[in-house]
Amino acid sequence: MKKVFTLLLAVMLIAMTFTACGNNNQQPAPPANGNDTQDNNVPAGQVFELMMSTQLAPTSPIVQGFYTWAENVYERSGGRLVIEIFPSAQLGSDEDVIEQAIQGLNVAVLTDGGRMGNFVPDIGIIGMAYIADNYDDVLAITQTDVFAEWVDELATQHSIRVINFNWFDGARHFLTNTPIRTPSDLAGVRIRTPGAPVWATSVESLGATPVAMPWGETYNAIQTGIVDGAEAQHTASYAASFYEIVRYINKTYHFQLINGIIVGEVWFNTLPEDLQTILIEEAIAAAAENARLVESLGAEIEASMVANGMVIIEPDIAAFRQASEAAYEALGFTELRARILAEIDR
Questions:
Q1: What single-letter DSSP state applies at residue 128?
Q2: The pTM is what?
Q3: What kind of architecture, by CATH, is found in domain 2-27+45-343?
């Protein structure tokens, strides 16, 4: 059934692509050079449409940042590039949309290093436990030469174009119905994680039993006992109303969740060069502003969850940090981490 849905969605998106590209009703601005054609032999006035997919709820601060990005791109492009936002996994799971992007459809998706690690294994390290302590630390990793090499490999070897990688959604913590203070407290506890090896291996090293499933299924899975809890950032757990079904926020800060927007290399290369530049520059700018907003909202969101009955647990961070070393060894990331930290002088 899933394959049928994906196929039907792909057909629909292809149809929308042709419709969008032929739509002159928005009367976009003419090219600045006054010629009848633009870069890549694209007819003047052609409108491009990009559908931005995310599992996050419409109320998520990052989703609001996407709307800012879309507005800025529309204005700067004179209406020639239109971005439509689809929150709450309306276009399917992240994995499905990534595959659609690779196939050349006009879709983008918010993703992370863990999922990109399925294509370029080393980039997954950015999603490892305790690779960074805050946004600035993890942002510095994305600005290294080694990260640039991974981005190039995604484009040239896997047809995945990284638009930007500076969307920040905060630190992730364990959400359970029993208090977690040390890794041993997670023994036998089934924790929902995203479906990527770096996430699962990291969560396992911290003591839990990882269970991969889509984020949209997690609430019901906890409620029905399929899993015992989850690990997530405040913006996502509050938007998903986890305070209704989970008692404890165990503040392990194990992941610093930095995300990127990716599109297919095939679709990206259909854009005129000026639209490629606009798309990237405005994404970077919107994400930089949005990251600081997310940072500023952390305490407020946590207070709201406490007001709704959740209890804060302050675990032994040093014990969890030490436990995470097993994941680096298991995935062969110990030397790679040393190389990255040396490049950013940490």
A1: S
A2: 0.82
A3: 3-Layer(aba) Sandwich (3.40)
